[in-house]
């Protein structure tokens, strides 16, 4: 029997928790909800697995991810059944088993927006895709588009039942890509509404079925979900530190007994970690230096016992020195090992498997310095023997608490992982809506009192002002577009508040562009790349739907001089005369912001439209963080844990509106 205190505590917590998943809280309903959150993540990992297998030409394994009667639609072509799907994949990959020597078959599939069905037996997902292809004999291509896929849970687990790829861009490496058929691009239908974008798991119907799982078993499963969030954050935070050559912070992420292995060469201990990192050069970026290594398709696996974990994914190196007009690509698979020490996850082993390194101006048509022929097999990567010793298992649990208290704690922890998925969904929705100029929908994913930065202009407070700003800038949406400046929001670091109702979010802006003609310097659309960071985003649960509270963009961290010039041919911009102030943007004159960029002080220093001398690529902009080092707690040089407008307009803080501030440092799991 539970105590009166425990019953009161349980009732109080259930009032404050999101009600999207449960009507009555007991072990059965908790079991159903754990299964639904787990299912959502299995769907995402299913698609990530597809992308990872593609790099190695594992056509049969890719086809096995589909349901037996699945359909794959690619543009105007459609095939059905695993055998036909495998044959189609094989033809695209060179009509052979695996990849030819020197060939490249990297398909980046990311920015997931996945919705589970009410009954939990099917799901739908939208994904961005960019394929970097080469046959090793001189041919190199780039293709891109959007997937609107469907998934089903059958006797074999989760499978892809429909892969529907909508091609949007294509072209050879020599000239650069253009819109498909050189025409205006139509909108790709959305499988979700504005409200559904913030509800990845809908409220189930009916009573929960009887479960054979105990509360202790469910608590362990929830713990693994929380661990997955922490390890994914750690993996992605590592990537941001590497981009900026923040070697002190990288070393801080590692356990004392650790190792790095790159191309078979091993480095031991934290001193070895530092030595391995310095193969990329000393700490810090110098003028004109690009060391961007965006991470895609990360899969995180928590081992039984909850004290060891692995991550595997794709790292795309976009590297160079604009001052010396050099640039190159690197294609790498990583498989990393993690350990939980004192409740905090740390990197234990970093293993990088380079597939190809190639000069930007030559392209990958004939392979690069490292070819896929010499790369380890996919299965060998996944089953590589540990570099360091065994990981000691520790005890965990809720000894000494009542069943009612354990149920409260389990529900609270599950809510935090639900928040992680909700934040990821609404993050992706923003990217998809602005790609398509869907301004009413874009404004609709903001909280009523939310705020948004318009680039180089300032902040607009409240949903109506946000909608007014984009309409003033771009006008109404159209059925087709002459080009797209894609806004991939990837490599998320999401820190969730204790009650699971708010989160801080960091995202990378990976921005390929397309148009009717290949890109050249000065074009807004065309075949080229740009980059930025969303460092201070916040999301909240408003009326059981995840919404943006604050969205802020720092850009561009690098730009392109057209496709052929790339990021290393951009020439320095002459600084303005002393005392000269940049003129306001057209938007600022037409629809003035509530907080102008130049009112943000140091936070806007060196950014276009902000304060101080503007830094343009190939200059190095400052990079801001909304969290401290997730292992050591080291404070970044530029640190702002709350929203950017909060210091200027304190009433914009979400804590003034009933939300908790998420943690911004190490978190014991």
Class of secondary structure makeup: alpha+beta
Q: What quaternary form is this?
A: single chain
Measured by DSSP, the beta-strand proportion falls in 25-35%
Main beta sheet, described? 9 strands, mixed
DSSP helix fraction: 25-40%
**In one word, what is the shape?**
globular
The poorly predicted ranges are 1-24
So how many helices? Answer: 14
Distance between the termini: 29 Å
Mean pLDDT: 93
Total strands: the figure is 25
Alpha carbon gyration radius: 24 Å
Keywords:
25% helix, disordered N terminus, 25 strands, alpha+beta, nine-stranded mixed β-sheet, globular, 14 helices, 669 residues
What does this molecule look like?
The protein is α+β, with helices and mostly antiparallel strands. The protein has helices spanning 4-16, 27-54, 59-63, 82-92, 194-197, 215-243, 247-252, 269-277, 378-382, 403-435, 439-444, 463-474, 562-565, 586-590; strands at residues 66-74, 77-80, 104-116, 122-134, 140-154, 157-172, 178-179, 185-186, 254-262, 265-268, 289-292, 295-302, 308-321, 326-341, 344-359, 446-454, 458-461, 480-481, 484-485, 488-496, 502-514, 528-542, 545-551, 554-558, 595-596. It has 14 helices and 25 strands. The strands form 4 sheets. Strands 16, 17, 19, 20, 21, 22, 23, 24 and 25 form a 9-stranded mixed beta sheet that branches. Helix 2 packs parallel to helix 6 (215-243), helix 2 crosses helix 10 and helix 6 (215-243) runs parallel beside helix 10.
Summed up, what is this model?
This protein is α+β, with helices and mostly antiparallel strands and 669 residues long. It has 14 helices and 25 strands.
């Amino acid at each position: 029997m539970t105590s009166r205190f425990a019953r009161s505590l349980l009732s109080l917590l259930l009032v404050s928790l999101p009600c999207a998943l449960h009507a009555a809280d007991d072990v059965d309903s908790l079991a159903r909800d754990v299964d639904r959150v787990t299912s959502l993540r299995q769907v995402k990992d299913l698609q990530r697995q597809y992308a990872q297998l593609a790099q190695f030409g594992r056509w049969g394994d890719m086809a096995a991810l589909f349901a037996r009667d699945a359909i794959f639609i690619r543009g105007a072509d459609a095939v059905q059944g695993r055998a036909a799907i495998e044959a189609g994949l094989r033809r695209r990959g060179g009509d052979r088993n695996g990849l030819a020597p020197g060939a490249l078959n990297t398909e980046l599939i990311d920015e997931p927006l996945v919705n589970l069905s009410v009954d939990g037996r099917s799901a739908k997902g939208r994904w961005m895709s960019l394929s970097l292809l080469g046959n090793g004999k001189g041919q190199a291509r780039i293709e891109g588009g959007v997937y609107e896929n469907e998934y089903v849970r059958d006797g074999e687990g989760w499978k892809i039942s429909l892969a529907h790829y909508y091609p949007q861009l294509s072209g050879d490496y020599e000239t650069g890509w253009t819109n498909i058929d050189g025409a205006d691009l139509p909108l790709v239908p959305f499988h979700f509404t504005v409200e559904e974008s913030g509800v990845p798991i809908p409220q189930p119907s009916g009573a929960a079925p009887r479960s054979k799982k105990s509360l202790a078993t469910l608590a362990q499963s929830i713990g693994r979900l929380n661990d997955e969030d922490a390890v994914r954050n750690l993996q992605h935070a590592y990537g941001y530190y590497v981009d900026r050559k923040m070697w002190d912070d990288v070393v801080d992420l590692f356990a004392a007994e650790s190792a790095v292995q790159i191309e078979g060469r091993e480095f031991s201990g934290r001193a070895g970690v530092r030595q391995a990192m310095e193969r990329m050069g000393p700490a810090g970026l110098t003028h004109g230096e690009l060391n961007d290594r965006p991470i895609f398709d990360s899969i995180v696996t928590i081992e039984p016992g909850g004290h060891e974990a692995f991550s595997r994914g794709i790292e795309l190196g976009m590297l160079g020195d604009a001052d010396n007009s050099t640039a190159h690509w690197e294609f790498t698979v990583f498989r990393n090992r993690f350990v939980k020490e004192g409740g905090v996850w740390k990197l234990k082993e970093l293993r990088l498997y380079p597939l190809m390194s190639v000069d930007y101006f030559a392209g990958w048509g004939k392979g690069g310095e490292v070819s896929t022929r010499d790369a380890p097999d996919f299965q060998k990567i996944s089953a590589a023997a540990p570099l360091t010793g065994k990981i000691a298992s520790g005890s965990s649990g809720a000894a000494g608490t009542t069943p009612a208290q354990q149920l409260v704690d389990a529900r609270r922890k599950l809510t935090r992982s639900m928040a992680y998925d909700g934040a990821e969904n609404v993050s992706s929705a923003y990217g998809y809506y602005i790609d398509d100029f869907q301004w009413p929908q874009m404004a609709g994913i903001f909280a009523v009192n939310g705020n948004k930065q318009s680039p180089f202009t300032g902040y607009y407070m409240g949903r109506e002002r946000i909608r007014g700003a984009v309409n003033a800038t771009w006008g109404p949406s159209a059925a087709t577009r002459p080009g797209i400046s894609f806004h991939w929001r990837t490599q998320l670091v999401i820190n969730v508040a204790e009650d699971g109702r708010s989160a801080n979010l960091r995202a990378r802006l990976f921005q390929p562009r397309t148009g009717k003609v290949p890109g050249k310097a000065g074009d807004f659309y065309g075949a080229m790349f740009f980059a930025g960071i969303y460092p201070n985003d916040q999301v909240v649960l408003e009326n059981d739907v995840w919404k943006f509270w604050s969205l802020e963009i720092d850009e561009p961290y690098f730009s392109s001089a057209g496709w052929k010039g790339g990021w290393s041919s951009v020439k320095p911009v002459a600084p303005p005369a002393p005392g000269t102030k940049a003129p306001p943007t057209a938007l600022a004159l037409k629809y003035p912001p509530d907080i102008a960029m130049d009112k943000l002080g140091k936070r806007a220093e060196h950014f276009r439209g902000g304060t101080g001398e503007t830094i343009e690529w190939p200059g190095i902009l400052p990079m801001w963080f909304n969290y401290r080092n997730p292992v050591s707690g080291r404070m970044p040089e530029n640190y702002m844990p709350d929203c950017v407008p909060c210091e200027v307009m304190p009433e914009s803080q979400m804590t003034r509106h009933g939300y908790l501030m998420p943690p911004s440092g190490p978190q014991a799991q």
